[in-house]
Q: What sequence folds into this?
């Protein structure tokens, strides 16, 4: 039996870039969606085979995969390089999670793929103060509060519901914590742009280093159960201010009063001021035999930058 073939959508993103390298390094054959020659060259340099198509262009996508075969599809497409000042229902990431998911699920049928992994986020548990208790996959997912953050929750719910409703693939959703590390909003690379955080330090959140997100994805590809979601988070939740300070490594950061942060980017008010979210990774440890190499941001930010990959369109 030959190596497993994977179609990866989002192969040049903060997660998708290092995931491409990891899949190739683990012996997978990787077909990577590429909208441009620049992104095609990036994935080709890491041993993946570019498939020139846009996940939002259904006809072009299905034509591009016609005649190809894959065992699995991984959906890592987002458009979250910077927070939008005005978040709307049709923001690009939501479109990728709705129409993009639908198109990729159809492409999986053309490819004959029987496995499908999709990127989700723990934020679907709700932008509110969840208290000291650790949230598990048994808690309600798709919790709304009547604010701008509902748009993000809607996108996450739609992506998961589309996946779990599909009967031609074994679907697994990966509910990542907030990402930190190279290429993310909280990037320790010298010269990276600092993310504004509340002067107070903000709420407590569950996090995941990019390298651990990649390792969790590989584990789910191998052992993830159909119809299941897994929290891919580290062991020790932390405040936004703590993570931002670790990312800057002593360099000046950008800290704003809560009212100013909320006025500048209302979504960041919901996320950083109103949300306390401690999430458990025990199910992933049990089912996937996965645990984070970086237990928290302190060790993760100090680790060598292994995941940096030039981003392309």
A:
């Amino acid at each position: 039996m030959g190596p497993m073939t994977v179609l990866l959508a989002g192969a040049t993103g903060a997660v998708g870039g290092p995931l491409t390298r990891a899949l190739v390094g683990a012996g997978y054959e990787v077909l990577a969606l590429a909208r441009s020659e620049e992104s095609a060259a990036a994935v080709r340099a890491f041993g993946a085979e570019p498939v020139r198509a846009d996940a939002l262009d259904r006809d072009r996508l299905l034509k591009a995969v016609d005649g190809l075969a894959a065992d699995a599809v991984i959906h890592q497409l987002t458009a979250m390089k910077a927070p939008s000042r005005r978040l709307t229902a049709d923001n690009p990431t939501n479109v990728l999670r709705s129409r993009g998911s639908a198109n990729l699920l159809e492409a999986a049928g053309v490819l004959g793929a029987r496995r499908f992994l999709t990127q989700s986020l723990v934020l679907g548990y709700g932008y509110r103060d969840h208290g000291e208790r650790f949230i598990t996959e048994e808690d309600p997912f798709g919790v709304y509060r009547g604010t701008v953050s509902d748009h993000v929750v809607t996108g996450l719910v739609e992506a998961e519901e589309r996946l779990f409703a599909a009967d031609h693939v074994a679907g697994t959703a990966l509910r990542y914590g907030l990402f930190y590390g190279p290429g993310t909003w909280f990037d320790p690379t010298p010269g990276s742009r600092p993310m504004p955080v509340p002067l107070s330090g903000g709420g407590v959140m569950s996090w995941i280093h990019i390298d651990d997100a990649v390792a969790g994805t590989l584990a789910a590809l191998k052992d993830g159960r159909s119809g299941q979601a897994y929290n891919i988070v580290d062991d020790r939740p932390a405040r936004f201010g703590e993570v931002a300070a670790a990312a800057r490594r002593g360099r000046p950061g950008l800290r704003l009063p809560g009212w100013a942060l909320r006025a500048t980017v209302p979504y960041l008010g919901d996320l950083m001021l109103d949300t306390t979210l401690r999430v458990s990774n025990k199910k992933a440890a049990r089912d996937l035999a996965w645990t984070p190499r970086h237990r928290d941001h302190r060790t993760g930010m100090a680790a060598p930058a292994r995941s940096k990959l030039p981003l392309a369109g």
User: Anything to note?
Assistant: Confidence is low (pLDDT under 50) at residues 307-313. The two ends are 35 Å apart (CA to CA).
